[in-house]
Design brief:
The protein has 165 residues and is an alpha/beta fold. The chain has five helices and ten strands.
Length: 165
């Protein structure tokens, strides 16, 4: 089933995807969702609609019961829960764009991070149950094919950097 309301930004790791989106959002006021920029070398959660930052990456002393780990990185489960809520709120909003930065190994391999919400949202778009806004997924280039298979995204529009400039 095709869906022209799913868009994907797929570039290599550390290629400036989030920075590109932060700059684009200054010219695109009607957006919601989340970005995960680095602020002072710490990954933060950025609420696109409210333009606020929240902790996501945490220190080694963070309580284990609120911890999500991938590789050397430690993230707050509470931060991911907020991210999921912000994505759901964005989908229900009148925003033109809902951004999910980023769908990665945590979601695809560990069913963690933005899961289960990101699967639910993508499914709603795939089944055309949501048509009032466009979903923009940020996916690293080396995960693009795997993510498309995992989430059954058959006909998304893959955007290159020039779209955002």
């Amino acid at each position: 089933m095709s869906n022209n309301n799913i868009y994907i930004l797929s570039q290599p790791i550390h290629s400036g995807k989030t920075t590109l989106l932060m700059n684009w959002l200054q010219r695109t006021p009607n957006a919601a969702g989340i970005l995960t920029p680095d602020v002072d070398k710490w990954r933060m959660l950025y609420d696109v609609a409210n333009k606020t930052y929240h902790p996501l990456q945490v220190r080694a002393s963070h309580p284990v019961n609120d911890l999500v780990m991938i590789g050397k990185y430690r993230f707050s489960k509470t931060g991911f829960h907020l991210a999921q809520q912000l994505l759901l709120k964005g989908v229900e909003s009148k925003a033109e764009w809902v951004i999910a930065d980023e769908v990665g190994l945590l979601e695809i391999k560990q069913q963690s991070g933005l899961e289960p919400v990101i699967s639910k949202i993508i499914s709603l778009y795939n089944n055309r149950q949501i048509q009032q806004n466009k979903l923009l997924l940020v996916i690293r280039d080396y995960l693009l094919d795997e993510a498309r298979l995992h989430y059954k995204i058959e006909n998304a529009t893959v955007l290159d950097k020039s779209f955002f400039e």
